[in-house]
Amino acid sequence: MTNPWDDWDHVLKVDPDKDLRPGETFEDVCRTGTDAIEIGGTLDVTAEKMSRVVDAAAEYDVPLYQEPSNPGVVIDSPALDGYLIPTVFNAGGPFWITGAHKEWVRIDDLDWSRTHTEAYIVLNPDASVAQLTEADCDLTADDVGAYAKVAERMFGQEIVYVEYSGTFGDTEKVAAAGDALDDATLFYGGGIHDYESANEMAAHSDVIVVGDLLHDEGVDAVRETVKGAKDA
Ligand code: 1GP
């Protein structure tokens, strides 16, 4: 089976709780050359803020995915190509592994054909996502590879996501996840801020995810990371 992300190199993650740079619009965001936009965020996200971003990006021709941080912010919009449902494999407790999902599946008329799975391995202990999920970030490259294999082989996850949100990660650990996978697509996110950092991580993963850079530096900086990813 082929998935849209088989052909992606670059994803832009938009945090609905953060502003774009002054003077920049969602049209500019959609014209950065990114392969897809993922709308997600860990703190203070509401369904209303999610809808605002989906509506603003809907008229442009870039695939649009929602990555809900909890079942309460899920929105139903025809503009969405799908939902990427995170499970934090190294979370400190069951809520982020099956608890939130138990609530998610109670949504009426869940569109399973547009619902996809994303196995997070969270590795920056200072990131909000690590603190919120009480993730065990003290992992060796071998541990990361083992989690990736569990995610793909035992839990059928379509995407494995090595998450260093806020900081540039250890390429050895990212490569270990890549080596462990046969079919799942490896996403990497964290600290990508220019052509070189994008190019380096793209060499070790299938898809790089750029987040804060959009809100901190703007669309020109994002465009450089797209080039870096495409050249790898
Ligand atoms: C966050 O992995 C993404 O979920 C991207 O991280 O914000 O550090 O680019 P940055």
TrEMBL record:
GO terms for biological process: glycerophospholipid biosynthetic process. GO terms for cellular component: cytoplasm. Mg(2+) binds at residues 15, 42. Pathway: Membrane lipid metabolism; glycerophospholipid metabolism. Its EC number is 2.5.1.41. One of its GO terms (molecular function) is heptaprenylglyceryl phosphate synthase activity. It comes from Halorubrum hochstenium ATCC 700873. It catalyses: sn-glycerol 1-phosphate + (2E,6E,10E)-geranylgeranyl diphosphate = sn-3-O-(geranylgeranyl)glycerol 1-phosphate + diphosphate. This is Geranylgeranylglyceryl phosphate synthase. InterPro entries: GGGP/HepGP_synthase_I (IPR039074), GGGP/HepGP_synthase_sf (IPR038597), GGGP_HepGP_synthase (IPR008205), GGGPS_halobacteria (IPR026417). Its cofactor is Mg(2+). It is found in: Cytoplasm. Prenyltransferase that catalyzes the transfer of the geranylgeranyl moiety of geranylgeranyl diphosphate (GGPP) to the C3 hydroxyl of sn-glycerol-1-phosphate (G1P). This reaction is the first ether-bond-formation step in the biosynthesis of archaeal membrane lipids. Belongs to the GGGP/HepGP synthase family. Group I subfamily. Sn-glycerol 1-phosphate binds at residues 13, 161-166, 191, 211-212.
